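SAMPLE LOG
Freezer: B-3
Tube label: C17
Construct: single chain, 125 aa
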Amino acid sequence: MSERRYVDPKTGEVVDDVEIRPFTDVLRELGEGATLSELSEDFYDLIQRVQDTGKPGTLSFVLTVGFDGQGRIQVKEEIKSKLPEFARPTTRFFIDRQGNPSRRDPNQPELPSLEDRRQLKESNR
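STRUCTURE (predicted):
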């Protein structure tokens, strides 16, 4: 890792070769631990959906860091996941004489149903 230098904006004190705190330590403290839990759960859900659909998905984590001018930073996190969608079946319809969608072909004669056949049979007795 390259050498880093920190200059305290309030005192001007210079610290050479600073020890950088591991990001995972900071991540555990964001949102009092809720951020790490949410990321873990979202990542798990993403993995499951990718396996179920065979399609890719995304999980984005963005940190916005601001400085308050009094020696403190403000960190706001944003988590977005885009789970892949399941394939939806296509349903085909005919257009009837009224212009409405119909599953039945309006140009094809209608076959008698079982109920129609029972009624015909009973009426011939």
